[in-house]
Amino acid sequence: MRTVVVRLLLFLALLLTTVGVSAAGQPVRVAFVDTGNTGRSVAAEALARNLIATTGAPVSVISRAVNLNPYNTAPEPNFVTLLQQRGVTVGDHTAVQLTQRDVSFSDLILTMTGAHKEWVLTNFPDSAGKVFTLAEYATGTDQDIADALGQPIEFYQSVLDQLQPLVDAAITKATA
Description:
The protein is α/β, with parallel strands linked by helices. Helix content is 49%, strand content 12%.
């Protein structure tokens, strides 16, 4: 009987998360995930924080890595520069590895690529139902966010231009 109740509660929590309501009226908790948590996921988190501050959307965001390099934990300088031009500061960010605790507390996990999504699902099977690629969740499309690491600043700009509408759509959908 207890197993049935637990499964029912998990189903209800998943259902509520799907429609944008976190348990107990708390903000929807969204984790943005990429490879090293120094580029795309940091930028997505920063863009989301900026939107949340502007709109008051009931969302809390974090960003995490699937393969943290302990010797490279600072944000990529080109993203720092381009985000500063938008009035968004990320220079104090330090990369963090995705953990079971993050998965447990997150209502929604948005990855930058299909490979990141598969990594999360493989390493945290209990994330099924709440992990999507950013584009998949935001628009229903199968689209990876390009990795700008080592590219010219113009490439970073194109990644930000790709991220902005997807992050906006994802935050809007999460709170709908």
